[in-house]
């Protein structure tokens, strides 16, 4: 998503966060949310779906949490550092739980391998940005 | 929403949280999300919209965070206490920031007064439930 | 949700739709979205989950479509009748597909019976409101 | 988002839609939703916010509708052509209304110019995909 930075740069509000890290995190969250939504559906279509219900539940929750975080991080009116830090913590928890579970199925299901990768990348981006919020 | 409890009671998964508090929190989150969405639109339609941009930004964020939390709390497959605690913390932060800002306009705008009330009730429900998650 | 009407009545924008039907539809959409989210999770937790994957997919889609519609219908700035009609049509299609599928499992799973009921009620509310939009 | 095609290709379910057009539409919807969310916040931060309330309302609605459509199109369990067609129609209506309004402010606000472009591209992708659904 190449427009994230352009939209940030044309926003008239002061941006309280590091712009480069903010844009990278929004993009990672958006991709993670999309990948988790797809992984939930792919798991649901597997013959062994009964073994993937924990994975599906975590995919759906990670998609919801990261999708919402991308929207929240894109909003600079009414910015509140406490909200941002808490939302990033929720993403870190959701990405860890989902990424760990997907990693267990990565050898068998390529969609889980890709999703585990998205979750790890997103978790890392959220931690990088969170370090600058707390500072 | 009288169906929240009925849906919880017919879910075959074990429910890790206090059912009464869980249902009360889901309902409070759902109502808060709806009220914040409406308050954002009502503020946007006021003549003095330029004085309400912080309020609108926080309304939109509180609606996103609480709406997502209601979905996450309704999911028991792949339950993870760390995610639940972090999501509730995000709601508490969002409800506090939005409720405080709405309260500043409550004397002038009835929609802000109603929204501040929804935020306070939701914050209280989230704290009550969070106390049982940490336990 | 008793606050829907109060929030509508304190919105300074002109409301293009019948207020009573609009509030009833927003409430029906909100409840349907919540019930479908819960039904998806309940189905995922059943031993016979492999027979419920169509139901889960439709639950998730109906939850997404109806949840978004409740937000869209709560917004009166930038009102556009073509969007409202199309969104209501999408809800009608999603509620019909999900309600029909849930009805097939209603004898076996109480959550599907409750969800089929929510979908039917929501479909009816959307059709009632749509009739006034097209008029 | 380069993972959209990879996730589609690893989904075990039959895909009822043209894969190339489907992936392009999901990516266009995801970008449009993100751009509209950012444009709403940028408009809210402008000194002339009172002249941009229609734009903000349509941005928020277009973001909701397109974000939901990206999720719905990523789901192949419980696929229903009537839902897909109705959801694409809702996106087309939302992108047209939002794109037209943003275009009116494009000379003054670069974020509106970028958003109008995203809306047009998304509208085109949705129409291309819809043509294959109706067929």
What's the layout of helices and strands?
4 copies of one chain form a homotetramer.
Chain A: H1 3-9, H2 19-44, H3 53-73, H4 81-104, H5 110-134
Helix pairs in contact in A: 2-3, 2-5, 3-4, 4-5
Order of SSEs of chain A, N→C?
A: HHHHH
Instruction: State the major sheet of chain A.
Output: none
Strand content of chain A: under 5%
**How many runs of DSSP E, i.e. beta strands of chain A?**
0
Distance between the termini of chain A: 28 Å
Average predicted local confidence, pLDDT of chain A? 96
Structural class of chain A: mainly alpha
- Given the structure, what is the number of helices of chain A? 5
Biggest protein-protein contact in the assembly: B-C, 38 and 38 residues
Tell me what you see in this structure:
4 copies of one chain form a homotetramer. The first copy, chain A, has 135 residues and is mainly α. The first copy, chain A, is 76% helix and 0% strand. Chain A is built from 5 helices and no strands. The radius of gyration of chain A is 15 Å and the shape is elongated. The model of chain A has no long low-confidence stretch (mean pLDDT 96). Chains in contact: A-B, A-C, A-D, B-C, B-D, C-D. The interface between B and C is large, with 38 and 38 residues.
In short:
The structure is a homotetramer of 135-residue chains. Chain A is an all-alpha fold and 135 residues long. The first copy, chain A, is built from five helices and no strands.
Main features:
135 residues; homotetramer; 0% strand; mainly alpha
């Amino acid at each position: 998503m190449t427009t994230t930075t352009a939209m940030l740069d044309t926003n008239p509000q002061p941006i309280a966060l590091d712009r480069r890290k903010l844009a990278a995190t929004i993009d990672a969250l958006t991709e993670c949310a999309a990948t988790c939504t797809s992984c939930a559906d792919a798991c649901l279509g597997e013959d062994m779906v009964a073994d993937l219900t924990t994975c599906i539940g975590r995919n759906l929750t990670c998609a919801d949490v990261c999708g919402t975080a991308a929207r929240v991080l894109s909003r600079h009116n009414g910015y509140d550092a406490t909200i941002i830090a808490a939302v990033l913590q929720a993403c870190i928890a959701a990405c860890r739980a989902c990424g760990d579970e997907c990693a267990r199925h990565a050898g068998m299901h390529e969609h889980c391998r890709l999703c585990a990768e998205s979750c790890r990348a997103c978790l890392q981006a959220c931690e990088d940005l969170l370090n600058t919020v707390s500072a």
